[in-house]
């Protein structure tokens, strides 16, 4: 078995690279079976600097695993109707397996309408209500990339999560809620916490697994964590001392059994899972 963490630090970069290697092989197999490869189309609206970096990386890694990759760029003044029409066009394009509209969108565009216009079979982000519903019903679905990445990291550390008490901090549609569904699927007992939770420290101290997806630098302290817990840090926070997570890494790494660093933990898994979802969408559109 691979050594997936040393000194209890989960190497998300390495695990993501392994996942991309597997995907590269899958793409070759699909090409020989269907004479075509999965294609990811990303739509970028406006000039948001972090979005531009994310999209560039998505394109780079999609190409690296042998997929087709296309980025469609629009000015932030684009009319909603034009964007929705483009999505419809992509829904009907056989070369496109996965469609991702990079968020955030300008205020005049209805995010919900955009998400609902994407064919759920091409929804690589797993945000379409059909996929959200399927995930919570325990059916096959596209799974949001970041929680999927967290779940894969957890399974590398502990194959059987059954009966573990997991505490999820944050209840966003992007992270907290789908993460909860994935943990339930693994038979964890899940506590989901948020900004109105009364005693977050007390909740965390009961956890065998903590998933922090908040957006507050170093919120989770060393004395919030039970000895031997697994801690997955989703947070990406810009501070004067650089990018840090939602977990106080220096303190928590002394008590946790395993912990993800920021950067280099969950982040790299997110893009690898996006590519994984694109392959899965390709399979769905080629199975009928
Ligand atoms: P979000 O939509 O802003 O949700 C944050 C959640 O944290 C909300 O549910 C909020 O509660 C909760 N919260 C806020 N303050 C809290 C507190 N003091 N105690 C407990 N819970 C609190 O954020 P998000 O989109 O899920 O992102 C969370 C973090 O993950 C951000 O740092 C983001 O940059 C990062 N992120 C990382 C990746 C990656 O690839 N690694 C991907 C996506 C996001 P309420 O619901 O009550 O407001």
CATH superfamily (homologous) name of the largest domain: NAD(P)-binding Rossmann-like Domain
Strand count, sense and barrel status of the largest sheet are: 5 strands, parallel
Distance between the termini: 37 Å
The low-confidence runs, each spanning 5 or more residues with pLDDT under 50, are: 1-6
| Overall helicity | 40-55%
Instruction: Report the CATH C-level class of the largest domain.
Output: Alpha Beta
Question: Your description of this structure?
Answer:
The protein has two domains: 35-120, Rossmann fold, CATH 3.40.50.10860; 145-267, NAD(P)-binding Rossmann-like Domain (Rossmann fold, 3-Layer(aba) Sandwich). Helices cover 42% and strands 17% of the residues. It contains ten helices and twelve strands. The strands form four sheets. The chain has a five-stranded parallel sheet with strand order 7-6-8-9-12. A hairpin with a 2-residue loop joins strand 1 (5-6) and strand 2. Helix 6 (145-157) packs across helix 10. The model is unreliable at 1-6 (pLDDT under 50). It binds NADP nicotinamide-adenine-dinucleotide phosphate. Residues 146, 169-172, 174-176, 193-197, 200, 213-216, 234-237, 266-267, 270 line the site of NADP nicotinamide-adenine-dinucleotide phosphate (NAP). The site of NADP nicotinamide-adenine-dinucleotide phosphate has 25 residues, from helix 10.
Key features?
288 residues; Rossmann fold; 2 domains; five-stranded parallel beta sheet; 10 helices; 17% strand; disordered N terminus; binds NADP nicotinamide-adenine-dinucleotide phosphate
């Amino acid at each position: 078995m691979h050594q997936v963490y040393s000194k209890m630090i989960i190497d998300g970069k390495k695990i993501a690279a392994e996942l991309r290697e597997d995907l590269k092989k899958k793409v070759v197999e699909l090409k020989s079976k269907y004479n075509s490869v999965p294609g990811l189309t990303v739509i970028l609206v406006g000039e948001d600097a972090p979005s531009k970096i994310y999209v560039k990386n998505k394109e780079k890694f999609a190409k690296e695993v042998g997929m087709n990759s296309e980025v469609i760029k629009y000015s932030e003044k684009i009319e909603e109707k034009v964007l929705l029409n483009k999505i419809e066009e992509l829904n009907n394009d056989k070369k496109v397996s996965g469609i991702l509209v990079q968020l955030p969108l300008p205020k005049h565009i209805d995010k919900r309408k955009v998400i609902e216009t994407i064919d759920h079979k091409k929804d690589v982000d797993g945000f379409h209500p059909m996929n959200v519903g399927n995930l919570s019903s325990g059916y096959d679905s596209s799974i949001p990339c970041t929680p999927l990445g967290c779940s894969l990291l957890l399974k590398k550390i502990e194959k059987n999560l059954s009966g573990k008490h997991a505490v999820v901090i944050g209840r966003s549609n992007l992270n907290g809620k789908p993460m909860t569904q994935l943990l339930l699927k693994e038979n964890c007992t899940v506590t989901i916490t948020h900004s109105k939770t009364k005693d977050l420290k007390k909740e965390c101290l009961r956890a065998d697994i903590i998933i922090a997806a908040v957006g507050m630098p170093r919120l989770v302290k060393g004395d919030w964590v039970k000895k031997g817990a697994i801690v997955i840090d989703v947070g990406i926070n810009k501070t004067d001392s650089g990018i840090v997570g939602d977990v106080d890494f220096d303190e928590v790494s002394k008590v946790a059994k395993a912990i993800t660093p920021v950067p280099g933990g969950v982040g790299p898994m997110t893009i690898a899972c996006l590519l994984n979802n694109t392959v899965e969408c390709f399979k769905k559109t080629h199975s009928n």
